[in-house]
């Protein structure tokens, strides 16, 4: 007989996008995890909680406006609800408790929103019993919400990935252009119109896994201030000089090969991690960024392979094989010259999202 209380844990890694030249293409899943501890108590016949869902939370942003405990507002549960409503399920099952443990700092360039979107899509699948949804199909749902595929691709599939979007048929293009408020029904204030949200077209995005040399670790230097991704995208130009585009194309062709080769070649990796498409423009939001990237080289720092902005920033990602403390201390000291306080973490490539049943 099926148990009346169902328990499972969804575990999703944080991620670093771009790794220098791979703007909106490359993602790396890293070993810091968002966890959802989910309990569905089917003995309950009614719930006092909106949408039959109670949220509790511990970790980054706890108690702040950034993390709502209302399932109609919280990013994670709204994403799960989007998946459910595309499958004609209007609420969570009676009665769902989602306990969120989140060590991923918010708005720092470590893919907190990507992890929340991926975990939310997986939550929708699991509570809805939607076993036919493959990881590839879940990726489509993620891409309706987070429009660049690099963070969500890494958080869903794990490892070091290249992601790409397919050209869409005109009717599908119209479907992915719908306002996000329609995709993620706004905090209801109650009225459920019963309207199905627009379903994602099939096969919007794809990914390919690249090898990763086992010697390479990631040092994440995390400033204490936030840079919302939307703001960090607003500072980018609409058009680029051709030499800058060529510069990035030359480096992106090297990057996956250089980072997969063992033993790593520091000079090649350092070269392959240079960027002209996003980091120079984001300097205005992240004081000291250009000097840090320019000053930290394998020649001046043993063990270092390369340095880049992590995602939209402000975190700096240093790839290295040794001397992790020394590398972190040097970058923290540079930030300190601009009165910016940081902490740091040593991370490793991680597997993708998992679901474990009790
Ligand atoms: N676990 C979570 N639960 C609910 N909302 C979350 C969670 N994690 C992140 N968010 C939302 O995502 C926002 C941060 O997203 P944003 O895209 O600006 O930064 P990021 O994803 O941390 O960085 P990047 O995209 O550069 O890697 C938070 O302010 C919060 O609203
Ligand atoms: N590729 C995205 C990642 C955001 O995390 C950007 O750099 O804006």
UniProtKB/TrEMBL annotation:
Lineage: Eukaryota, Fungi, Dikarya, Ascomycota, Pezizomycotina
EC number: 2.7.1.39
Stored Gene3D superfamilies: 3.30.230.10, GHMP kinase, C-terminal domain
GHMP kinase C-terminal domain ranges (all copies): 273-336
Protein name, as recorded: Homoserine kinase
UniProt entry tagged with the keyword Heme: no
Domain GHMP kinase N-terminal: 74-159
UniProt keyword annotations, A-Z: Amino-acid biosynthesis, ATP-binding, Kinase, Lipid biosynthesis, Lipid metabolism, Nucleotide-binding, Steroid biosynthesis, Steroid metabolism, Sterol biosynthesis, Sterol metabolism, Threonine biosynthesis, Transferase
Highest taxon, organism lineage: Eukaryota
Similarity comment text for this entry: Belongs to the GHMP kinase family. Homoserine kinase subfamily.
Any matching Pfam family: GHMP_kinases_C
Pathways per UniProt: Amino-acid biosynthesis; L-threonine biosynthesis; L-threonine from L-aspartate: step 4/5
Coiled coil regions in record: none
Catalysed reaction, written as an equation: L-homoserine + ATP = O-phospho-L-homoserine + ADP + H(+)
